[in-house]
Write a sequence for this structure.
């Protein structure tokens, strides 16, 4: 059987091309195949449907007019495939229930809407007459190209390439006059082909209308309309339902905004419940008298000591606390008891409670009317949809190889949706007012001058610690501590550092405070689970439009 497969060849490949004024082509190929004594059903005829450009492929507008075998209709099965993202048409010509031997002539007639090319100084037909993918010898190639009107061209305006794909070897076996060109080639081996490039004076051909080219490119890239449409719809939705309106001018305020605890202020700032907001709950509870924080030294190995922080629960009646603070406080009791080290929280899986605490923190800022909808839920819906489309695009790549643009389009759409997700939560009017106050208080924390701070310390010597939860939630602890350089403050009952009295300089405990924040953050972490045939000598065999190849089956 192998000998039979190797025995078939193409006795004659005849191509007749009518070049029309608008650059379109009508092509008739007569392929005389000698199957010898082998038993075959027919041939496979392949052709690329697109032309490659720097900005991507675009369709040439192929249309199969008729397919005959020995001047009779024959069964044809169409299929598409995309080697290297380049869409091809395959015609499987022949009756799968019948085998043939000997010599048969296949006639394939088709039209091409965008056959010619247009450059600044010339018009051009750059066409693969045979293609370079035939898996059999071609004994003889004959071609004829008829012009739409007398063409003022010379032999130097014609390049006939014969050889392997990429070969720049030219041939001169052609006859040229003002009405047509005809030529021939002999003994074309498998993988070799014949390509022609004809240069016409600029304006000899009429360029197709922009609308026609646009529609062809649009049709060829139809899948990429999806991300464009999704982007427009998402942008309109964001503009109407996600865009935060201006909050107005920000005025510095010298006290924490009323009815906005530090963790909620942190969420208002970036619309997220971050780790700093969770840590701020610990200091907020301490300030409210529910617990005390004490720096201690623990032995790590031999004489080496390690800094840790001891938490002592001092009050258990959580009746007046918002639900997220209750969840946080109950998680402390559950994982540590009434007295424990911060390092023990990680061992007792305190991080497993973070999700519930964050959910309730989001619910609280939504319940207060700061957001139109739960910001985390809004983001999650968009993110889930986007990641689902990304996953689906990777999954479909293996199944839609011939339509690779579909999974690529889905992937781009998913990325667009994911990119919009963070911007979709929207503040209400009340939320904008609250954010304006939070920003005003933050302005105070980072810009207050020492003279004003001295006056405020005289009224409230605990001001550093009272405002510390907000500095933590806003991520400006160092800036807030720097404001107290050289100033003495009072240490509250709920925070203790060894060797430091009730009256102290903030600089003496700033490292301790930073360490306590870092220690609790660590303990709270969740468990790990187009070219021309003439430019720069750039023409070559197989470099034009059309072509392809085929084989027997």
């Amino acid at each position: 059987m192998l000998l039979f497969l190797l025995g078939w060849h193409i006795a004659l490949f005849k191509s007749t091309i009518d070049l029309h004024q608008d650059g379109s082509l009508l092509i008739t190929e007569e392929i005389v195949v000698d199957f010898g004594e082998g038993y075959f059903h027919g041939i496979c005829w392949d052709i690329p449907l697109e032309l490659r450009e720097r900005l991507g492929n675009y369709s040439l507008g192929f249309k199969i007019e008729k397919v005959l075998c020995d001047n009779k209709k024959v069964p044809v099965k169409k299929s598409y495939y995309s080697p290297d993202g380049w869409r091809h048409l395959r015609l499987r010509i022949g009756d799968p229930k019948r085998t043939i031997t000997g010599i048969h002539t296949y006639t394939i007639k088709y039209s091409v809407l965008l056959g010619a090319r247009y450059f600044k100084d010339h018009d051009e037909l750059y066409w693969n007459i045979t293609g370079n993918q035939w898996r059999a010898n071609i004994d003889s190639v004959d071609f004829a190209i008829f012009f739409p009107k007398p063409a003022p061209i010379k032999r130097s305006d014609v390049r006939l390439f014969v050889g392997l794909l990429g070969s720049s070897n030219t041939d001169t076996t052609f006859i040229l006059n003002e009405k047509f060109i005809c030529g021939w080639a002999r003994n074309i081996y498998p993988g070799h082909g014949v390509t022609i490039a004809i240069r016409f004076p600029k304006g000899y051909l009429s360029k197709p209308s922009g609308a026609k080219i646009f529609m062809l490119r649009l049709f060829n890239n139809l899948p990429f309309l999806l991300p464009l449409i999704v982007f427009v719809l998402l942008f309109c939705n964001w503009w109407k339902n996600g865009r935060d309106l201006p909050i107005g001018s920000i005025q510095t305020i010298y006290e924490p905004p009323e009815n906005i605890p530090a963790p909620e202020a942190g969420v208002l700032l970036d619309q997220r419940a971050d780790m700093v907001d969770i840590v701020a709950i610990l200091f907020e509870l301490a300030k409210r008298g529910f617990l005390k924080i004490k720096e201690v030294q623990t032995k790590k190995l031999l004489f080496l000591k390690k800094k840790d922080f001891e938490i002592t629960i001092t009050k258990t009646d959580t009746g007046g606390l918002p639900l997220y603070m209750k969840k946080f406080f109950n998680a402390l009791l559950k994982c540590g008891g009434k007295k424990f080290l911060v390092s023990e929280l990680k061992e007792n899986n305190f991080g497993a409670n973070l999700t519930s605490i964050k959910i309730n923190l989001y619910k609280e800022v939504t319940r207060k009317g700061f957001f139109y909808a739960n910001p985390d839920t809004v983001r999650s819906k968009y993110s889930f949809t986007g990641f689902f489309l990304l996953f689906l695009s990777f999954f479909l790549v293996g199944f839609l190889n011939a339509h690779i643009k579909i999974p690529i389009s889905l992937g781009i759409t998913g990325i667009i949706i994911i990119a919009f997700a963070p911007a979709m939560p929207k503040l209400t009017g009340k939320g904008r007012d609250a954010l304006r106050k939070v920003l005003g208080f933050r302005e105070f924390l980072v810009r207050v001058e020492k003279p004003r701070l001295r006056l405020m310390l005289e009224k409230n010597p605990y001001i550093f610690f009272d405002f510390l939860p907000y500095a933590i939630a806003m991520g400006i602890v160092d800036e807030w501590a720097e404001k107290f350089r050289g100033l003495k403050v009072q240490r509250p009952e709920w925070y203790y550092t060894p060797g430091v009295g009730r009256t102290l300089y903030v600089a003496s405990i700033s490292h301790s405070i930073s360490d306590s924040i870092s220690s609790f953050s660590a303990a709270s972490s969740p468990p790990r689970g187009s070219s021309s045939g003439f430019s720069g000598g750039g023409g070559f065999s197989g470099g034009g439009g059309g072509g392809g190849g085929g084989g027997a089956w």
User: Anything to note?
Assistant: The radius of gyration is 39 Å. Residues 1-5 have pLDDT under 50 and may be disordered.
